[in-house]
Sequence to fold (154 residues):
Amino acid sequence: MEARIQDYPKFAPESFKTMLALSAATKNSSLEPKLLELVKIRASQINGCAYCLDMHTQDARAIGETEQRINLLSAWREAPFYTDRERAALGWTEAVTKVADTHVPDYVYNEVRARFSEKETVELNWAVVTINAWNRVAVSFRIPAGTYTPPKKS
Fold:
């Protein structure tokens, strides 16, 4: 697959900078890094974003996430490898990602609130919103999978 616009950030640099800032805010939230990567992977699976799947599976492995948990993420409800907190976050991720179909039901919200503070719930929501935005950029412009290089460890 060939990218539709090779250097899309240069055509809307302020918007791109804003997205980078939103990503940085999500990364710097109080949420656990592994949980954030699971959320990013799950939303990217739903949205069919190969570029983001490649990126976030690499990033998840780099922080110690297991192959088993990454591989079974699309079947998280049936797999015993996720905590109740992660399950609540994954349910929220799916509901928000599919908002047109789900309208984010109360039972999903109640599961999240049973395991996340108000602050964490808001941070989780921003994480889901952010990855969904990136998915839409990468899918729309056909950013090719396999082009992501993880940052070097300092």
Q: What stands out?
A: The chain has a mean pLDDT of 96. The first helix runs from residue 13 to 27. Residues 13-140 form a domain with the AhpD-like fold (CATH 1.20.1290.10).
